[in-house]
Every structure is written in structure tokens, then in C-alpha cells.
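Question: does this match?
>
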Amino acid sequence: MKNLGSIHSLLTRTAGDLGRRQFLKTSASTFAAAAAMSTLPTGLVSPARAADGTIVVGFITSMSGPVSSLGIPYDQGLKAAVAFKNQVAGKTVKLIALDDASDPTIAAVNARKLIQENNVDVIIGTAGSPGALAIATVCAETKTPLICIANANPQGEPGNWTITIPQPAPLMIAGAVAHMKQAGVKSVGYMGFADPWGDLVYNALIEATPAAGIKVTSNERYARADTSVTGQALKVFATRPDVFVAGGSGTPGALPYLALRERGYKGQFYGTPAIINPAFVKVGGSAVEGLIASTGPVVVFEQLPDSNPTKAVSKEFARALKATQPDAVPNAFSGYSFDAWILFLTAAETAIKTAAPGTAEFKLAMREALTNASEVVGSHGVYTFKPGSRYGNDERSRVLVKLEKGAWQLIS
């Protein structure tokens, strides 16, 4: 268990991924061919696995590219989780990890590779919502359960094979809007990613503000890879909102705040769990000092009362993280990976009673166990899933924090 390197090795190199990405971009037919590659048919269990009962987990994250500021903490959290526990009912768990280079196309190809070549029983991934949705489509097609660590809400059949660890945007935005209302706020400006995550935050904001008597004054968008949002910031500034909230994540999530402060905006900043990581704080600097955000309790677990059910799990997570990566500190994203592993372990304990790892029956049993998990305590909250719902969090997974002198302080 302590020899994490033997369990958690990155099987793809950045250079190889970048080369494959260039290759895949040449044509749609090329992607189709790559997506269809297979050396082991889905559901076929190898003789070795039949003998030892090893459970194989595929992990996809973004160790390179614009989403890597989130992908690296995800990787840190899963390394801590594997060190925490890597056996189920006496059976060893093998982890195979791949880098998707922040590219949804590569994320989908990686998922298919893990399923068809490595015959994984479940996938955990990835760092960005677009990539997570791409993986969900592959998992539905191959009937492989997905534990999603990005905030994504796949619909239809992909949703039937997916559970999502991060808190739903409406739950988290509602907490921020409640704080705005108490502060007498009448208008809020918005700028977010031009992708599913930006849509989720904006839609949640539109849903929560009318009852609070707050008007949303803007809906500006930008790409994750953009290096400037000057034009969008000027448009937001022109609407003169009392406060501002951004729908970004990681280091690119700091751009709107930086641009508005540079243009003299003095209003209160709000944020989502997607910006609760060290890289955001470092890049945002003084511009984001005083920002108020909703997040999971793991971010401020030492400030929680001992009666909070997540505090004990967060302590275990912090210990495992320090043991495996002494320089890392618990944050929202590493916590999501840790909780994904806890839910995997809980579901596998149930599934292994009725089916053998490496079989289609085990995958189905895993899906049933995951989508029916009840009161599973993690570092971010207490998870209860129901068929038809990707999210398992309630208000126990939400706290409000304020950034003071570069550290997050509990305010609610």
C-alpha cells in the first residue's frame, strides 16, 4: 500500500499525448479509427484476473494543458486515496492513470483505451467538464461506470452510468446568493467559460437570483485557453453591478477578477468551488483578496466543529496526502478525488459479493452500488445517490469561505 509508485504510474507521456492529439486533429475519420481500437473486447476477463480477482480502476486527469492547475491536485488526491486503502474484501486494486492533456478528444480516446485494452472495472475522471462529458459518452456505450470528478451533468444514457462528486452548481450558487441578499445586493455581473461549466454556473445564477430580488446584469464568456478578457470585462463593468461572480476554474478562472480590478471595479467578488485551489490564489494575488466563495468543508476542515461528520474523514485525507506528497495541502480538487475513491471502495465492497471483477456483471453491479450509495461520508460531504440523479450532495457539503491574506477562512 505504501509503495504508491508501483500502483499509480502514469502510462502515457506528455510528448506522446501531444503527438496523438495532433494526429487526431487531422480528420474526423482518424478519430473514429482511434476510438475503435481494441485489443481486449469489453467485458472479457483475462485468465490472470479471473484467478486473483484484481479490481482495475482507470483514472484520467489533466497533468498538462490549461486545465492542469486542477488536474494535478486531482492526481494528488487520488495518490493519497490509494495510499489510504488499496484493497477491497482482501482483493488488490490496480490503478492505471492517463493524462488527457486538457483535451476532451484525448480524454475520450483514453477512456476507450482503458476499457478495451485494460478492461477496467470503473473509471474516475477528469479535470474539466468537457472532457468528463466526453468520457461519460464512452462509458455509456461500453457500459462502464464513471465516477466523475469534474462538475458535469451528462444526460440520457451517459447519465445512467455516471455519478458526479462535485457539488451541483445550483446548491453552491444558492449559498452565495443568500449571502448577497443578506448584504443588500441588488445586481450581480457574470462572466464564465464558454463551455458546459460556464453554462451550469450561469443557469444556477439565473435560477437563484429572482427570489432574492437580485438582477443579473451580464453574461460574458471566454475560452479556457484565453490569455485576456479585456473586452468582456469592459462590458461587465459598463453594467455597473453591485457584485460580480465568475464561472471559471483554476488559473484561467482568475482572469475576470484580474481584469475587473485593473479597470477600477470596487465591488465584492464571489466565486464557486472551481476556483478553490492554490494556483488560483497565487495567480489572482491581491485582486482576489476578500473574495467570498461557496465550497466543500474539506477546504477549512480544521475550522469546523468536531460534530461535523466530514471532519474526521478530512483528517484522514490530510494525513494520507502529507504522507505521499509532503508539499501538498488539502484543497477542493484533491478532496474530490479522495471522495471518489471512498465511493469506489464502498461500491466495490457490495459489487464483489455478486460478481467477479473484470466481467460485465461486475460493472453492472458497480453501477447499481454507486447509484444507490447512501450516507457515505467523505471529505466534501455526505453522499446519497439515487437512480436518475448524478449528484449526491446536500447542504452538508456547502460552506462559505472568504480569502484573507491568501488563506480561506470559514464565514458560514
